[in-house]
Amino acid sequence: MLASHHCGLGLRRDMMASVSAASVSGVDFWEIAPENWLGLGGRNGRQLAAVAERDRLICHGLSLSIGGPDPLDLDHLHAILSFMRSHGIQLYSEHLSYCAAGGHLYDLLPIPFTPAAIDRVVSRIQQVQELLDAPLVLENSSYYLAPGQQMSELEFIRQVIARSGCQLLLDVNNVYVNASNHGYDPKAFIQGLPSEAISYLHVAGHYREADGFIIDTHGAPVIDPVWQLLAYTYSEHGLRPTLLERDFNIPAMLELQAELAQVRHCQQAARQQEPA
């Protein structure tokens, strides 16, 4: 499993030429979206198998739709579990959101922050966890509207975790994006999360529009306030495995390695501040 000091990168097909041939310095693990690899053979399949044989892989799914109105797609979940077993992958995370309603919507949409939504999500999480025989790891998602909101995002997440026993993939950039767009204190949000439930962390870049509204893009370098929020997260909850996401405008591997080195720098600084 991942150690608290591990640093990872999201593995995209554009990177495979440089990644499959040899280990990449500074990368302790790779995160993949299983939907992008299921059923692939040929060169892509061989390259992924080579990486899985050599390096740690974890799965971060895109289409579970844990908060959606449609029944859970158990056939798809079984396919992901089979994929994980075939590549020796032990960790599966997803998004605390939904992406299907009478068909796939090709976006991650916010679950209403309501008691009724908690009841439904908890039931579906428990269904998935019975199949996994392990806690489901769910990411706090970025959102731009909060329809029917009856509680804060923080209280919603806390209740989902407490009632379902799931774990949290804490996306620090998403906290920054949501706090900026919806007017809450990102540090208070992070402080209010249960430390024992945090499995690992994400950091990423985003895009700020002319009016100040922020779009979560994963298409730019991480900005200083997000690095500062990552350092604060370590100070509040201790070190956690941390992954740098980059989904498009992907730079050369050396540039990604340099940005990942900033994650390691934050971890080292946090370690030095721990009591002896």
Tally of DSSP β-strands:
12
Helix content: 40-55%
Question: What is the terminal-to-terminal distance?
Answer: 26 Å
- Helix-strand makeup class: alpha/beta
Instruction: Note the overall shape.
Output: globular
What attributes does this structure have?
about 280 residues; alpha/beta; TIM Barrel; eight-stranded parallel β-barrel; globular
Q: In terms of topology, how is this protein built?
A:
Blueprint lengths: L6 E4 L5 H4 L9 E4 L9 H13 L1 E5 L13 H13 L5 E4 L2 E3 L3 E6 L5 H18 L4 E3 L13 H12 L2 E5 H11 L3 H6 L6 E6 L3 E2 L5 E2 L8 H14 L4 E3 L8 H21 L3
Parallel strand pairs: 1-2, 1-12, 2-3, 3-4, 4-7, 7-8, 8-9, 9-12
Antiparallel strand pairs: 5-6, 10-11
Summarize the structure.
The protein has helices at residues 16-19, 42-54, 74-86, 115-132, 153-164, 172-182, 186-191, 224-237, 253-273; strands spanning 7-10, 29-32, 56-60, 92-95, 98-100, 104-109, 137-139, 167-171, 198-203, 207-208, 214-215, 242-244. The chain is an alpha/beta fold.
